[in-house]
Amino acid sequence: MIRTSRLLRVSRVAVSRSRLITCAPRSFTSDHKPKTPPQAPTMDPTALRYPNSDLSVNLRDVAKGDYLVPGDLARQSPALKTLHARLGLPEALPLSTLAQCLTCPEADTVGEDGRKLADNYGMSVFGGSLLKYHVTEKFVVQYPRLPLPILNSLLDSHLSLRSLTRLAESWGVETDRRSAFERHMSNDSLANTLGYLRYKPVEDDVSNASKDGVFDSYTPRSDVKKYNQKQKKNSQHNYDSQVYVFDSSAPEGYERSAARFVQALVAAIHAHVSRDEALKFIDNFILSRAVDVESLFSFNQPHKEIVRVCAREGLERPEARLMAETGRLSKAPVFVVGVFSGKHKLGEGQGASLAEAKIRASVNALKGYYLYSPIEQTRPQEEGYNGTFIDKGPVVI
Amino acid sequence: MSARPAYQTVARNLNGVGNFVLQCKKVTFRYCNWGGSSDGMRQYLDKNLQKIAAQNPEIEFVAVKDIGHPFIRGEFVNGAEKTICCKNKHPRFINGKFEMLKSSDGAPRKQMKSPVESINESVRGIWSPYHTDPKARHKI
Fold first, then answer.
1. Is residue B130 part of a domain?
2. Residues B97-123 pLDDT 10s
3. Is the Cβ–Cβ distance between A170 and A258 less than 8 Å?
4. Residues B55/B99, Cβ–Cβ less than 8 Å
5. pLDDT, tens digit, for every residue of A358-396?
6. Which range of residues forms the domain containing residue B95?
7. Chain A contact for B76, CB < 8 A?
């Protein structure tokens, strides 16, 4: 953000030049609350802390702020207003709540009068649950036969911290991770940071980010990298028990904070407008993204599995039949194999050997079974809901 | 468990599906109060700045008075920025450049080789020689 004395900023409401130029930097106070002399919060510390639960394992020492951003102050922030307009958020969602969504609990947001801003912690927990519920419901209705590990992987691709962070990035959410001291040294008031995602970076990552020559000093890419590597290392053990939860081991960095903003925004729409509007927001922004579900599958013994599936469904035992071939004795043979249950072809695959073609055909048949999607899909919260298909569950090999 | 996820993936953002987010987030106009090369920019800002700011609430507008030739700079959600020199330019030219920045996505310009580029597979699939009638197949 350019801030010079010769700067003239024009936004939708604040177009009056004289008003902009004469607008002196104001202290962070509100009219609806009595002014108190600057002092540190003196309330009971145990009452101020977050509940000591698994969700807040690294938030135990964070004091809870309770100070809401006054509306007239929020309306002066061009970054807030443009973000509101860019996302097409409903008018009923006030800018001050949007500013609260952008404030993470770890961020140093103690204002000039010693009070700390209300943060997005509670909203993000609620919004995260709403997101998880709605997205799960969508995919369970859409792909009723999806095995649980695949379903969890699909949910993760939409709801993981990394995924929600990418979403927030695509909205152009800018960040400000300065502490109150740094803000003071650059002669900037808290009000000027309202439209930015405010969070506390991880100490190591700040220095690494500057060393790596990251293009935006406010966006610590090294946070993201570190987290990805960690995910990969642990991922082998997590497949079966993988359920989307708040991952308290994630760094208190950019990735976690940007995702929290998205979750909090869903909760804010729910609170200020309506549940329907929040669900519409999830449909439009979260569920409109693309994942190739077919590519998520991997099978250990595909032919054995399709045999088990057919046995359970009361179909004839499937067998692989050669449908076409070329160049059996050449360097590049091609075999086309179909998996048939009686007269019915379940799947087909081609490969350079008979075994490969058979495996591909079985995988193709299994994907055809697991990716069944009903033509009429009604979700329980829609009008005219007339039940949904419920599968028997996975087969045991 | 039988089927396992092959890898962890992240959903691809498809801007325009479900919702459209304008990719241009900030436009800066620089002008000089004294220099003649800023003549067009000054006229443009005088007449149009308030109007376009009201018409485009998604974009943050900044007018900077500084010495030197005028320019117009767009900043985009992907972190890129594009700067266009407006030295001695007519307001019409500046308006055209503003519209260009507004409709741009911040990616470098590239030549489109075909009129339509799809990210999805063809519904019909590709032709296969092994699925034609065996009698009609070419015999080697």
1. no
2. 999 999 998 888 888 888 888 877 888
3. no
4. no
5. 999 999 999 999 999 999 889 888 888 888 888 888 888
6. 20-103
7. yes
